[in-house]
Each structure stands twice: as C-alpha cells, then as structure tokens.
C-alpha cells in the first residue's frame, strides 16, 4: 500500500527507492514553508515530483517514522517572529519547538494527513523509532524530557523510564535508535560528556532496560542494524570529516549485538570509497546498503551503494561502483524516512 502512495519500488526483495520529505521556503516570506514528500530512485538517479504535501500546521525540523501502512511526522520548530506559528507565538525572540504529530494512513489516502495526539513535550528533530504498534520519541530539543511513547491504538503519549545508571544531565541519546525485531528491543546509544559511551537495549514487551556494553564507543548517524549486526561508520578524518572505505582502512565497523563482540571487517573492492561522516546508512535488503546525504550548500543529493555479507564470522564489504551519484535538488532542508522491518513497503 505504501508503495502505491509514496512511489516505493523494489526488485527481488531489494529496495530501489528512498523516501524523504523536504521543506522549501515560500515566496511569501519568513516562516512560510512548504513540506513535500518525494522518492529518490536509486537506479535512475531521479527524484519524483511531490507525492504528498504536509498541512500548513506541520513544522520544519520534524522527524518521521513508518509503522505498518502509516507514516507519522513528529515535532518541529518555528523561526523567530514566525507569523505562521500555529500557537500564535509570533512575538518571540527565539526559535521554539512544537509537539504536533501528523499521520498519513496509506490504506485511506483520501483522508490525507490527519492530526494525531501531540507529544507531551515540544521536540525539535526527536530521535524516533517505531516498534510493535508504538512510536518512541527521544530527546530532540526537549531538554529535561528524556523520552515518551505512544501506542497508536490509544490516545495518549506516556513518559518512558530512564535507564538505571544513566545521568541525562551529562549524556545525550545518539541518532538513530534502532528496533531489533527478533529480540523485541530497541537499541539506544548514549554519548557521554564525562565517560564511556554505552549501548543500552529497551525491552519493548517488558518495559525494562539492559546495558549491552558499558564501553561501546563511538556512534554515527550512518548506523544500521541487520540480522543481529550493527553497522556503524566511525573514525572520520579530523580535517575533512570524511570516512574512507578501502583495503588500507575501512571506517565501517560491525558489532554483533547477540554475542556482544566486534567483528573484523574487510573491504574487498579494488577501488576505495569516501563518504561524509554525517550521512545516512540505509539497508535496501539482502545485504545491499546505501550511504545517502543531502549537500545543502550545493543543492544536491549524493549517494553510494555497497554490498555487505557475513562470512565465517567476518564482514566482507564491496562497493557497487567507483562513482558517487549526484542528483540536483534545491531545498532548504531534507530528511530521509528510514524504513525498517516494522514497515510494510
């Protein structure tokens, strides 16, 4: 159903498109943004026309999750002196966040985007994930408000407990948080200002926390979980903030979340691949992955595809091509929707 509405395509179990939403400033002036959904075809390097447009009340700086045949947009912010603020806060001197939530039901596309129950706290770019009929929203700009959860069959958001031993005054939740379906748990990485960066698991069914690794180490936005293995882009160059994948050095690391151990990673292609540290890593299916990012200064999308396989306890990585795919797209702000096993494509 989502494939029909949002133009998602796959072939032989491998996704050929990425879904994203983008905001573009209107000619009307300050505060006037139009937020549209598009799909990026990874085979043809083409971007669709607008597939759906958010209602004016939706704010830029939101996050999106997909659950079943529904897509949810969470939070966002208004600019200073924003005349379009849905709460009428047009005289403020500062940016301010909102807790609004919108839902698109792909089984009933004629309804369009409908407003869902708002979060308990305003959040700018909350770190969000969907799991087993619930949506979890962590931090964002909700300082002092760790996380909250919403059962989509109900009407209210509820606070989520803080892991024992975690000091939210000195730690922050890293993006992304990831759902681990076979073990019914959500993996949450914390970056600390004072000590090691631990990896925790929140058990969805029991509502309890477990520390998987007290000294897990670095994390990045380019992190994905597939078949019990975390793939994470780390160790960027200090000057360029770029990560190299080559036979001399492979910045893609792998961690077995079941055995709680790091796995050796080997780059097998004859050519090397260079990607920015602040990009997204998306699993397309059957060992196919895609690094994708939006270069706002240049007004272009860029992406590279790789293949990954696990062989006798080792991770083997190969590049699909030597070149970077570049697609022009002039918008103010772009966010991908990372589809996972909780999503019906």
Would you summarize the structure shown here?
It contains one helix and 34 strands.
Outline the fold blueprint:
Layout: H1 2-6, E1 10-11, E2 14-15, E3 17-25, E4 33-41, E5 46-47, E6 52-53, E7 63-67, E8 70-74, E9 77-78, E10 96-97, E11 101-105, E12 113-116, E13 127-131, E14 134-138, E15 147-151, E16 157-159, E17 171-173, E18 178-180, E19 185-192, E20 199-203, E21 208-213, E22 223-226, E23 229-233, E24 242-245, E25 252-256, E26 261-263, E27 265-267, E28 273-276, E29 280-285, E30 288-295, E31 300-311, E32 314-319, E33 325-328, E34 333-337
Parallel strand pairs: 27-32
Antiparallel strand pairs: 1-2, 3-4, 3-34, 4-5, 4-6, 7-8, 8-11, 9-10, 11-12, 13-14, 14-15, 15-16, 17-19, 18-19, 19-20, 20-21, 22-23, 23-25, 24-28, 25-26, 29-30, 30-31, 31-32, 31-33
Please provide a written account of the structure:
The protein has 345 residues and is an all-beta fold. The protein is built from 1 helix and 34 strands. It is globular.
For the report, how would you describe the main beta sheet? 6 strands, mixed
Number of helices: 1
Q: Total strand count, please?
A: 34
Give the distance, in angstroms, between the N- and C-terminal Cα atoms. Answer: 7 Å
- Outline, from the CA principal axes? globular
What integer value in Å does the Rg equal? 20 Å
Which segments are poorly predicted (pLDDT under 50) over 5 or more consecutive residues? 340-345
The average pLDDT is 90
Strand content: over 45%
Structural class: mainly beta
Brief descriptors of the model:
single chain, 345 residues, mainly beta, 6-stranded mixed sheet, 5-stranded antiparallel sheet, globular, disordered C terminus, kelch repeat, repeat, Kelch-typ_b-propeller
């Amino acid at each position: 159903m989502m494939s029909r509405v949002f133009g998602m395509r796959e072939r032989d179990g491998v996704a050929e498109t990425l879904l994203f939403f983008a905001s573009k400033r209107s000619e009307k002036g300050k505060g006037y943004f139009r937020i549209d959904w598009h799909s990026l075809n990874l085979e043809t390097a083409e971007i669709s026309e607008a597939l759906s447009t958010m209602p004016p009340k939706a704010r830029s700086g939101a996050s999106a999750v997909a659950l079943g045949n529904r897509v949810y947009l969470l939070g966002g912010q208004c600019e200073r002196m924003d005349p379009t603020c849905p709460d009428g806060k047009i005289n403020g001197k500062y940016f301010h966040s909102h807790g609004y939530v919108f839902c698109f039901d792909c089984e009933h596309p004629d309804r369009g985007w409908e407003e869902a129950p708002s979060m308990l706290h305003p959040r700018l770019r909350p770190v969000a994930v969907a799991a087993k009929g619930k949506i979890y929203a962590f931090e964002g700009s909700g300082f002092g408000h760790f996380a909250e959860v919403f059962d989509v069959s109900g009407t209210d958001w509820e606070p989520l407990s803080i892991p024992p031993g975690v000091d939210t005054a000195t730690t922050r939740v890293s993006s992304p948080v990831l759902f681990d379906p076979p073990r019914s748990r959500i993996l949450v990485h914390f970056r600390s200002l004072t000590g090691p960066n631990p990896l925790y698991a929140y058990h969805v069914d029991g509502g309890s926390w477990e520390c998987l690794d007290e000294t897990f180490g670095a994390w990045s936005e380019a992190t994905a979980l597939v078949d019990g293995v975390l793939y994470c882009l780390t160790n960027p160059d200090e000057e360029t903030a770029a990560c190299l994948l080559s036979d001399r050095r492979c910045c893609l690391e792998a961690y077995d979340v079941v055995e709680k151990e790091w796995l050796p990673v080997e780059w097998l292609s004859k050519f090397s691949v260079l990607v920015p540290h602040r990009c997204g890593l998306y699993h397309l299916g059957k060992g196919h992955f895609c690094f994708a990012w939006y270069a706002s200064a240049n007004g272009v999308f860029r992406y590279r595809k790789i293949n990954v396989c696990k062989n006798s306890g080792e991770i083997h990585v190969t590049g699909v091509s030597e070149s970077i795919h570049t697609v022009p797209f002039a918008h103010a702000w772009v966010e991908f929707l990372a589809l996972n096993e909780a999503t019906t494509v």
